[in-house]
Amino acid sequence: MVAAASLKPAAAGVARNTDMDALTALRNGLQDPDGVLKSWDTTLVNPCTWFYITCDGDNRVIRLDLQKKNLSGTLAPELGQMDRLQYLDLHDNRISGPIPLALGNIKSLKFL
Fold it and tell me: Residues in domain Leucine-rich repeat-containing N-terminal plant-type (predicted)?
């Protein structure tokens, strides 16, 4: 007999993607009046199929391009969890908040 607590969704064997957690926190902190982030489906195993996201061969986010998307709100501190993120473009939006210091791998940052 299988205990009810051990029943898990099919994707439960896959470790939760910290990049997805960070992007979900970002999305939750933003107002998106044009619905540009609708492809960000958190039921997927990783965010590599989402629009405006580029991943490396390990399915880790290396690029986030959200320029000129009419977004507003606060920048999620969880973005600092994205240890492979190299390019972050958020310019021409109304996003506020400090840029997480943990974004040490960033080669290109466009915020304003």
Answer: 17-56
